[in-house]
Amino acid sequence: MPQDYAEAVKWYRKAAEQGNAIAQNNLGVMFARGVGGNPTGVFKGRTSPMYLLRDGNATDVRGDSYLLAYAFLKMASENKLGQGVKNLSLLHGLLSPSQIAKAEQEVESIRRLIGTKRKLER
Predict the structure, then answer these.
(1) Positive or negative, the Cα torsion across 46, 52, 57, 59?
(2) How many helices, marked H, and strands, marked E, lie in the chain?
(3) What is the mean pLDDT of residues 55-71?
(4) Are residues 88 and 77 in contact, defined by beta-carbon separation less than 8 angstroms?
């Protein structure tokens, strides 16, 4: 069966918005690699969304995929997922201070969006 990254993003996002740390991590890794969304990923090479490797798979940090990657990895990290902490650290090491500041704003924006969605669902 062929991999359907768009479908994976759809389901990971639903679970991530419910606070599932594993889904937050996997979604962050997918955005960092540019799969299932923006094709200019921060990490390329391996297709498994379970881990990042720093063995030459890093490319230039371009586009906005890093914003979503950072946001979801930060949420996974805050939910005490060890792999989320590790992946956020790897991504953090590749970003400039201005990119980190912009990514922190994205975290807050996504949190507000999730909060609004939850209120509407009640």
Answers:
(1) positive
(2) 5, 0
(3) 61
(4) yes
**Residue 70 burial (CB < 10 Å; 0-12/13-18/19+)?**
buried
Q: How far apart are CA 96 and CA 110, in angstroms?
A: 21
Give exposure, 25-52, as e/b (b: 16+ Cβ within 10 Å).
bbbbbbbbbbbbbbeebbbbeeeebeeb
Q: What are phi and psi of 58, to 5 degrees?
A: -75, 140
pTM score, whole prediction: 0.75
Rounded distance, CA 77 to CA 69, Å? 12
Name every residue whose Cβ is closer than 8 Å to that of residue 33 and which is 6 or more positions away in sequence. Answer: 41, 42, 43, 44, 45, 46, 47, 49, 52
Cα atoms found within 13 Å of the Cα of residue 92, Cβ hemisphere only = 13
> In which band, very low, low, confident or very high, does the pLDDT at 37 lie, cut at 50, 70 and 90?
low
CB environment 105-119: b (16+ within 10 A), e (fewer): ebbeebeeeeeeeee
